[in-house]
């Protein structure tokens, strides 16, 4: 069934939805919020502990774990902001006012999620690579300093910046109102970039798991030699 629209008294165009649809969206946004709170709080505790204690900051392993925790916490914050923002729009009666792709792209939650979701994916790969190095070249790895950890975390952050810039460049081309104001992630991205966005997260998750296979094989081989 095609979407129906109406002109509001304030001159804006609004998508018409049933109360069941509105209630369903509200429930899903609440779940987003709960997940966001859990992710933000748990990962923030890890990051704060590493920042507070010098002994932890001096260990490369904790810096890398802190980088992953920061990425996951930022992703959770995006979920939380999206939940609060979208529910607020529903309560105000503005959630279905039509916005352009560009307006969705610059909504607070879209800004955070566009960056943090990709960062969380590459951070997983970063952690897996670090574990692989630790078991593959243990003696050399032992000599690595926290500078190595800062470099690998910084590289993860730097890697996601160019694609995000491309995303905003593409979205800027779409200024015609066509999406409801609650703005799901796909609504703020060019379709081609959104396909990359989803695929990137899937690939990084898959690669991070695959990299643990040689880690486990090496650990098993070492344990057989020792015992």
Molecular structure report:
This protein is mainly alpha-helical. It has a single domain, classed as Rhopdopsin 7-helix transmembrane proteins (Up-down Bundle), CATH 1.20.1070.10. The chain is built from nine helices and four strands, in the order ββαααβααααβαα. A two-stranded antiparallel ribbon has the order 1-2. Helix 1 runs antiparallel to helix 3 and helix 5 packs parallel to helix 9. The chain is elongated and about 70 Å long. The termini are far apart. Residues 42-227 form the G-protein coupled receptors family 1 profile domain. It is found in: Membrane. Keywords: Membrane, Transmembrane, Transmembrane helix. Its main location: membrane.
Write the SSE topology.
Blueprint: E1 4-7, E2 13-16, H1 19-52, H2 54-57, H3 60-92, E3 98-99, H4 101-105, H5 108-136, H6 138-143, H7 146-171, E4 179-180, H8 191-210, H9 212-226
Antiparallel strand pairs: 1-2, 3-4
In short:
The chain is mainly alpha-helical.
Structural class category: mainly alpha
**Tally of helical segments:** 9
- What's the architecture, going by CATH? Up-down Bundle
- Beta-strand residue fraction: 5-15%
Could you give the count of β-strands?
Answer: 4
Uncertain regions spanning at least 5 consecutive residues = none
Per the CATH scheme, the topology name is Rhopdopsin 7-helix transmembrane proteins
Distance between the termini: 67 Å
CATH class: Mainly Alpha
Shape: elongated
Overall pLDDT confidence: 89
The CATH fourth-level homologous superfamily: Rhodopsin 7-helix transmembrane proteins
| Largest sheet composition | 2 strands, antiparallel
* SSE arrangement, N to C: EEHHHEHHHHEHH
- The radius of gyration computed from the alpha-carbon positions, rounded to a whole number of angstroms, is 22 Å
Protein name: G-protein coupled receptors family 1 profile domain-containing protein
Transmembrane segments: 29-51, 63-85, 105-127, 148-170, 194-219
Keywords: Membrane, Transmembrane, Transmembrane helix
InterPro entries: 7TM_GPCR_Srsx, 7TM_GPCR_Srsx_nematod, GPCR_Rhodpsn_7TM
